[in-house]
Structure formats: C-alpha cells, structure tokens
Amino acid sequence: HEIFFQVFDKGRMEDAEGRLIDFKNTIILLTSNVGTDLIMDMCKDPKLMPDVEGICKALRKPLLKVFPAALLGRLVVVPFYPISDETLKLITRLQLGRIGRRTQQNHKIPFSYDDDVVDLIASRCTDVESGARMVDSILTNNLLPEIGQELLRRLMEGKTAKRVHVGVKDSEFTYSFD
C-alpha cells in the first residue's frame, strides 16, 4: 500500500529506472470484492434497498480488515449495487448482438437466438463476484467455439451456412445453420 501513499500524497512516483511519473491529473480506480456478501445481504429486498451512504457506512469495518485506515482515508468508496436479472439479460442481449454483427460481417449470414438462450445464460451467472463477466465467459467458452467449428467445417467441405440460430433444449444450447 505504500506506493499508493506516494502517488496520493505527492501526485508522483518513481518507476523501476528512477524516472519520475506524474499522477497529478490522474483518476485511479481500485476495485475489490471486500464486503460483497454484506452488500448482497443488504440489497436482498429491492423495496428496502439502502442508499449509497448506508452501504458505505456498513462497509467500513470489512474494509478496515483488509486495507489500512491511512489508505482508506485517501480513497472515495463507491459501492456497486448487485446486478439485477433484467440488467444481466440486457448485457447478454448486447453481447449476443455483437456476435450477430460479427457473423453478418465475417460470413454474410444472419444470427438469431431464442429468448430461452438469454434466460439460460442469465441463470448460469449466479456467482456474485464474477457478475456480468460470466456472460462473456459463457459466450467465449461455449457458444463461439461451437459456432466457429461448424462454420469452419462447412467452409472446408465447400458448404455454406444460410444462418446461425441458437436455441435451448434440456438446459443446453442448440445450434442450427440451415
């Protein structure tokens, strides 16, 4: 934590070669999962959602267990509220839209998906600490490899796909290309 004191107090620091690095016009964002369970517990009931000040006050003790008071005194704590299911589904749709644009751009074929795909992805994003990053992980590790392999296989066989459609059957993704 000592390196932060130098940056926060003097607005500068030295790198490994002894060069002075200026931080005077810099915003530094630090993230932590400290207090995640506490925030989740406080935000269980949307009707009783605490305000930012209430969450910050409740986070003080857990933060002091991890970070020195001198460091916390130089920081502004900005708590994040849990991601709602609606927001998670919106993020999923945005990411699927990116896949659709890539499919159209690179292969000149349309991409579509059932609403069940969005629901299945959202249901697999239950780890609070991963948040919406899990959406990207599911798409990168599940959907994209399956779609890519099939498009490449067809290309090697001299066939073309007319479209890419993703659905769900028995809680698993299904794919159709014709």
Automatic annotation (TrEMBL):
Coiled coil: none annotated. InterPro entries: ATPase_AAA_core, Clp_ATPase_C, ClpA_ClpB, P-loop_NTPase. GO terms for molecular function: ATP binding; ATP hydrolysis activity. One of its GO terms (biological process) is cellular response to heat. Keywords: ATP-binding, Nucleotide-binding. One of its GO terms (cellular component) is cytoplasm. Pfam families: AAA_2, ClpB_D2-small. SUPFAM superfamilies: P-loop containing nucleoside triphosphate hydrolases. Residues 83-175 form the Clp ATPase C-terminal domain. This is Clp ATPase C-terminal domain-containing protein. It comes from marine sediment metagenome.
